[in-house]
Fold each of these.
Amino acid sequence: MTRRPESSTDNVYAMRNAYTVSTEEALEQLDVDPDIGLAEAEVVRRRNRFGANEIKKAETRSAWLILVEQLRGVVIYILLAAAFISFVFQEWTDGFAITLVLVVNTLIGFVSELRAVRSMETLRKLDTVDTVALRAGHPSRLAAAQLVPGDIVLLEAGDLVPADVRLIEQSNLKCDESALTGESVPVSKHTHALDDGTRLAERVNIAYRGYAVSSGKARGVVIATGAHTEIGHIAQLTFLASPETSPLEKRLDILGRRLVWLTLLLASIIGIGGVITGQHWLEMARIAVTLAVAAVPEGLPVVATVALARGMWRMARQNALINQLSAVETLGAMTMVLTDKTGTLTENRMTLTLLALPSGDVGFDHTVQNVSERSTVNDASEQAVALKIASLCNETESCGGEDERGDPMELALIDAASSRGFGRKMLLELEPERHRIPFNREQMLMATVHDTPTGQRMYVKGAPESVLSRCTSVHSDLADEILDDKEKERWRELNASLSHQGLRVLALAMRDVQQADSAIEGLTLVGLAGLMDPARKGVLEAIGACRRAGIRVVMVTGDQSGTAAKIAADVGISDKDVSTYESGNDIALDELDDDELKIVISADVIARVTPERKLELVKLYQRQGHIVGMLGDGVNDAPALKKADIGIAMGQRGTDVAQEAAAVILLDDEFASVTSAVQQGRVIFGNIRRFVVYLLSCNLSEILLIGTAVLMGLPLPLMPIHILFLNFVTDVFPAFALGFGEGSGQEMQRTPRDPREPVVLRAHWIGIGVFGVLIAASVFTAYTISSRVLGMSESEAVTVTFIALAFAQLWHVFNIRVCGTDLLKNPITRNPLVWGAVSGCMILVVVAVFVPGLSEFLQLVNPGVSGWILASVFALFPMLAGQLGLQFLSLSILGPEGTLNEIPESNE
């Protein structure tokens, strides 16, 4: 062939339209002889110009980056500032204590997230794909990465297509395209040119990188490699799809900013008040640091991190591997799930579902097994003959069993026949195959000829319209009957009905033949076989659980709308008729008019969706205010998985690209694992809200206690080191106990919380204020009595204040109980961790006062029996007042999902 100029390959990657040109034109543009391939020198030149046939992978998160990420957040910044100021004023004890808090929090988050990230990376080990290419006239097996545009590759059953390939020769080639298009059934290929604008899923003369060859063989020319393949294009979309900040991160950041302003406001008021009352400004600066330490809940980052980490570990035991700590809570905040169909809701394998026979439809139950093969051989019933044809008229060489390879539809027919005693191996021994007419796209059928005891017989299987046009009779248990035009029309209508139900329909037929007679005419129709990629076990129940929890489930698939709608109905995506929307490739969602956009938003199934359109849909629903979860396993799901608030990929069937883009991987590929993870996420947010309210009310009591003393011109009742001890020891352990609550078990019976809802609502702030005042007033009274009435020294009075505040905050944990629960029997009192935390912290307080070394470090002294009694009695007042008030008003701090209720609710 005539060689083009050397610059002919300059526009190799412009061959996005290779499907529109003939094989000759494609070869000419790529300057290659299909019988020789490229010379080694030309391969080197093209590889130097276009690079290796590799797709950029997601960069591994380094341990250093994971460590730095733990130091983000307003609360952390406040603590860093407080530590810095403490060191400036040479308050070394306070500075080192604050630093210790930061170090502990950082290490917990770092270890938890590093463990999760390394577990994810274990799943992402890519296998090296080899291929066969013609080089200088000789077939060579080489790594797919060595391919260049213009290489001639040879494909056969079992291969993964190594690059985007324009087919130039093929023999019964079928490809599994589910990873890229979502199409669950292998697609037959040909080499003819197609019209410009043909959908990707319908470009049957192209084998795109990532397709799996189900059957047949082919020769093709590489038209794109690396990042310029369709998969490479999707990978680029994935990298550009910036992940959303998690709802919890947004809420805690808002809370942190509010704490900053609150701290500055209170410090300013008290500082100015102190200067007015005659105190030195340097002393007031030191007090301001004390107030900052008191205002910021040092334990909040630690408790939140540990609560999320514990949720991560619990989810891992339930087969949900979490990549980032924040993803744990995001699962609980989900309001919508967009899910792929193939391999996610379905098994990604074909199954014979129904046989439509002349005497009526027969539903096919694969749990029924026929143990005796020989007893079925002479069975001439309609069902027996249909299954015999399904087994013998089959392109796969497999005889069933564990070592199955081939077209999933062919294997499904063999498996169904075997389950009724018509094993392929046994049938071939009894009726040896003498001749085969392979499937081709022109005739849309295949045929095999077999020796039988009564002569030779042809078995035929193919597209119903093609087979019906060649039939003149129909098989019956009694006798064959003439198939006239009226009866043919009835069968065509039946075929249309089955197709509308989402079934893939094949017609089965036969006829007796003479020697050397291979005409596929005068057939006897036996029936229609309906196949489907069945729904996965447990999906119906899992989707039902999501809907009861107020989570909307929408199927987004590249498959056809009829098939998708049938699966959607089977798995209960809607309690009424499933609404579908078939997406187009040419119009962006932003360009749709309002009426059509409403149809898209309300649809239960969105079919024929490209990767770009999936990404647009995620953005659309996010603009509607949804927290969007995306489930998928294919390459085509990756951009949407990355952009979604929570991307969830399959661990067993999921592609590496999908797993790299996701925040969560389901190790068992079960949709039910999603509902378990959502429930755990909701429990965790409820727990976080509980301990946030607990910690803030404790910290407010410290601010009010110190502020009151300053404004009254009294000595400070507590030092910064005392507050740090209380905040990080006696506050944190009860908060841990609240954070480890198991939940009420009713989390999935409630609708999702408003995505815009903050961690602390206005009603929570009221509760925080009330309890903060109760605790501060009670402790300040104990401080005043100890110093003014009992005449204790300043050190003794400070110790009484320390003990009273510690005990009051510990007892306060029982005020954080669920609305309407019993005074003595509620989730708080039934939590053994709460009792352990309260008991352990009381012991720590005693140790802090009596153990030499520690007591000197904390500047505490034994206040005597009277001091201990005084502190213990006044510490009980806030808890008793809170419990009596709650019981009398039937009003608890937190409702079932962690919201403050102004009126009673029913018991959990």
Note: Residues 355-530 form a domain with the Calcium-transporting ATPase, cytoplasmic domain N fold (CATH 3.40.1110.10).
Amino acid sequence: MPRHIGIVACSAEGAALCYRTICTEGAGFLGPHAHPEVSVHTRSLAEYADCLNRNDTEGVGELMLDSAIKLSNIGADFLICPDNTIHQSFSYVEPKSPRPWLHIAEVIAAEAASRGYRLLGITGTRWLVDSDVYPDKLKAVGLDYVRPNEEDRDTTSRIIMDELVCGIFKPESTEALQGIIEQLKVQGCDAVVLGCTELPLVLNDSNSPLPVLDSTRLLARAALHRAVS
């Protein structure tokens, strides 16, 4: 039997895309309409945002652990979190967790290395881009990175938190994100990390100035591989 995947969700749109990917691509491993057992739990996004605004990484970790415990209690064998930003609390969560985790940035770093990329642009919320969630994991596999400038970080964060997490997709916002990625390309990046799980809802290889590393779908696929291995 495939392992039971527990999804520690934070924002709805990204978590839904991760869930859908697991369910729809499970058929490639298990046969028509089949997928591993999947359970999702989330605390309110407002609770997470309050902790992030206070730089309370321990508080974020406690919210994640609350979900982890509940998912463990209903049978999840391992856990994933389709939210890049709150991985800054991962070092607090992992040793206290009742179940093992896949780390989203480790999944992306491994994929980037396997594709031969060398210099990655990091996009996402301001909380994520200012953090060491991706730099630490990229450096561990010998990759370098570029962060957008201050103005572009603020623009991306606003689009994510005011629009994408609410299911609002504006063409002008997509164009703004494309311009930010174009600047990363000018700085020598050979790929871009879509380091917010909502960004793949509006950006992909067909409309991005750089090849994309879709953190949402790559995490879902890594979870599938683990569940059926």
Note: The domain at 105-214 is CATH 3.40.50.1860 (Rossmann fold).
